[in-house]
Each structure stands twice: as C-alpha cells, then as structure tokens.
Amino acid sequence: MTTPLYGSLMVDIAGTWLTAEDRQLLRQPEVGGLIIFARNIESPRQVRELCESIRAIRPDLLLAVDQEGGRVQRLRQGIVKLPAMRAIAGCADAEQLARQCGWLMATEVLAVGLDLSFAPVLDLDHERSAVVGHRAFEGDPERATQLAGAFIRGMAEAGMAATGKHFPGHGWAEADSHVAIPTDERSLEEIRQKDLRPFAALSRDLAAVMPAHVIYPQVDNQPAGFSRRWLQDILRGELAFEGVIFSDDLSMAGAHVVGDAASRIEAALTAGCDMGLVCNDRAAAELALSAAQRLKVVAPKGLARMRRRAFPGVDYRQHPRWAQALSALRAAQLVE
Q: What is each CA distance from 102 to 81, 99, 155, 157, 235, in whole angstroms?
C-alpha cells in the first residue's frame, strides 16, 4: 500500500461539483486538503458524491468542514441542528451532553464522506468577542476544559480527530478577524492564567490546533498564526504539543498584515503551521500554490492522523447510540 503524500495547502471550490479548473488544482501535490462551505452543500447525498469525486482524483486529500453547532454549522439539510456550545453549560449533566454532541456531530460529518470538522472551539466566552460569543463552551477556563474534553471524547468515539481553536484564545479580542486585525493587549501571564488553560490541559487529546489571527503585542508583534514565539516556543515547547497545526483562513483580513497570499502562506509555514488554508479567493489560492511549489515544503506525516478512523455508513441512524444521544439532547431542550 502506498503511503499517502500530503501537501501543505488546503483550498476550497466554488460550487457543488468539481469543475475542470478545480480538478487541475486538486491534482497539484502541494494541495493536501479541501474544505467545504455552505455554498458547496445541497444534501448529504450530494456531499457524499462530491467527496467520492474528489477522492477519485486524490484519495489522500483531507476533506474538512466547520461544523461546530449553533451558527457555525455548514451541513444543515438532513442533519441534526446542534446547539451553540454555550447552551450546554447550563444544563444538568452538561459533560455527558457535550459528549453526545461531539459524537453526533462527528458521526454525521463522517457519514457524508468528510474526514474532519474543525472543532471544538476552546476560546473562552469573556462576553467581549461577538465572533466567538456562544461558540465557546464557557467563560471559566476549568469548566470550558471539562466540557470541551467531553466533546472531544465523543468525537473520538465516532472516529474523528479533534482540532482545538483558536490558539491561544480569541475570546478577549473584540474585533472580528474575518474583517479586521484584532489585538489582545493582555500580558502573557494573564493569557496563561485564563485562555491558554484549555489548550494546555487538552494538548494530548487534540490531534490538531488552529491558531488565531489575533496580535498579542505583549508577546509578539505578529498574529499567533505567523508567530514562532506562539507556535514553536509556547505551543510546541511549553505545552509539548506534537499534533498538526492548521492555519486559520489566510484570506481573512486578520492575515493580511503580512502581505499577499504568497507572503501569508510562506509566513505561516515558516512560523510552524503544517497546513495553510486559503479559502474564498481562487486567485489567492493560486498565488499560495506557487509559493508552496517554490518553497518545496514537505508536509509532516502527522497529517495522516486527521483522516477519518471510521465510516458510519448512510444508515447510521440505526445505530443504538443515535437514539440515545438524540433523546438526551431533546430532553435537555438542546435540539428539536
């Protein structure tokens, strides 16, 4: 059996089916993954067929989606509409409910042929950041760690690796990194005492981490995803994290501080990211591809850990745990 070769670039496509241009892009060995968005989704069956067509070209590609629950839930039709994670914290038996949510989310994402959802959010809800808000489990670091840990266990039981985001924490910075360059003026010690704690406590349970497009000027003048201080000294060094580091979308405004797409992918990979995401901008993806080809970056073997470990099949709702999980969430009034 041939060992899969993973590239260092994750891209996207515009529609619900592959175009000739998409196929040409996906054949490039520097491309190692593809992320789908709501615009790529019509139904679970259509997504399965799309995934099959992608794997026919590149069986080694990582196929991803953002399926957190709440407002960040790209798959919606024929899928359980999970609550925002913050809604779980106030429930009795919240840890078990978080575990059931993790299992349900992962099972449905795997069933359509994808490998992973970029989840869970480990940011703290400081009631400052509108872009994080109820996507976070809690504002208290210990409680957030407990609930996120339970969610990760549920994901693992379904066969999906977990990605913690947005390191070292996006919950304090008020600006939205999709449209601005947020800053967090706190000291490293303040961040260690609060926002960094879930990442530190769960570092061995996470297969991957996604850094924030936030500048923490008391620590480094670069956003975390472009910072060797954050990624190498703190994440790899202090936290002893050995998994994959995915950049957040390098087309977001928070990433523009380092220049064009070629400069962004180079800065992210040089700082320590293993795979850079360039989405919603095909011209930028092509620039990033040219840069990756020039850099001759070899993606780490650790990316293989992100592949799905199970495929629940299209009749997964017949699984006994399905009824159990759905019943528990309905009893807590978290789903319809």
A: 13, 5, 5, 9, 24
296 is in an annotated binding site: no
- Is 176 labelled as part of a ligand binding site? no
Please indicate if the annotation marks 74 as binding a ligand: yes
Domain of residue 115: give its range: 8-332
Of the candidates 69, 210, 93, 67, the residue with the CA atom closest to the CA atom of residue 146: 93
Residue 300 lies in a domain: yes
Q: Quick check: is 319 catalytic?
A: no
For 19, list phi and psi in degrees, rounded to 5.
Answer: -95, 170
241: pLDDT strictly greater than 70: yes
The answer to whether 170 is a known catalytic residue is no
Q: In degrees rounded to 5, what are phi and psi of residue 14?
A: -85, -35
Q: Is 48 among the domain residues? A: yes
Where are any strands of DSSP class E within 96-200? Answer: 116-117, 163-167
Residue 165 assigned to a binding site: yes
pLDDT at 181: 81
| Residue range 280-310, pLDDT digits in tens | 999 989 999 998 888 877 767 788 889 999 8
Taken in order 119, 317, 53, 310, the sign of the CA dihedral is positive
Catalytic residue among 22, 248, 249, 274: 248
Mean predicted lDDT score pLDDT of the chain: 91
Of residues 178, 233, 281, 319, which has the active-site annotation?
178
How many other β-carbons are positioned within 10 Å of the β-carbon of residue 81?
12
**Is the model's pLDDT at 116 over the cut of 90?**
yes
Q: Is the dihedral of CA 23, 24, 25, 30 positive or negative?
A: positive
In the chain, the number of structural domains is: 1
Q: Is 135 annotated as a binding residue?
A: yes
**Which CATH number fits the domain that encloses residue 163?**
3.20.20.300
DSSP string, 175-231: S-TTTS--B----HHHHHHTTHHHHHHTTTT-SEEEE-S-B-TTT-SSBGGG-HIII
Cα separation, 103 vs 37, whole angstroms = 21
